[in-house]
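Record 1 of the preview.
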Amino acid sequence: MPWNGNQDDPRRRLLIKALAAGLFSSAVVSRVASAQALGARPAPLPPGKSIYRLEGEVVVNGQPATLDTQIAASATIETGKNSEAVYVVGESAFIQRSDSQVTLETNESNSMIVSGTQLLTGKILSVFPSGRPVRMTTKNASIGIRGTGVYMESDPEQTYFCTCYGTADIVAASDPTSRETVMSRQHDRPLYILAAEQPGQNIRAAPFINHTDQELALIEALVGRSPPFVFPSDNYLRPRRPY
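->
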């Protein structure tokens, strides 16, 4: 995993802007997305719809995904090279980057309530409803959150984790003495969670990389919410944080 913020190419930046603006044709965007006016606030997905946008190769529970695929809170979602999925499960929403495998978990009788995620590999931006606890895990980290927006990257050597807003309790999987509670208003303390350092030294400060306030505003809007930081309600085009 790179230690800088230049990992994603300019093509993805243009895709993000077009996604928020509703510029993709109906061949690659749901009817809801394509109806959005330029720069307008995206609307929540209608009942029975899970996917806002697909790009490239996306598989849900072993089957190729379409815009009509429904995703429950026990699904496994995989994206291929140069692929991306933007989707909603109940009151939670996600942007899953390329080459990523995520398994959602639920311990509720309602199959649309996400209570956990396992990021086996790759990158994902997530938002969850206020007050609901979620356990997020990677090979190197175990993270408890409650009603937050978070960005996470996972590879065999380390996990990158940004508490975009809210509170997160972070523990290194290989070293329970490496733990930290982060209370963030706006990306205040991104972290690397490692596996091979000395006890108590497996959590380190990290830079802000590979996600934007504009993306958070987009997926919060898909579930009818807004981020807690100031973001103009009529402008979903301009990132509020640099790459």
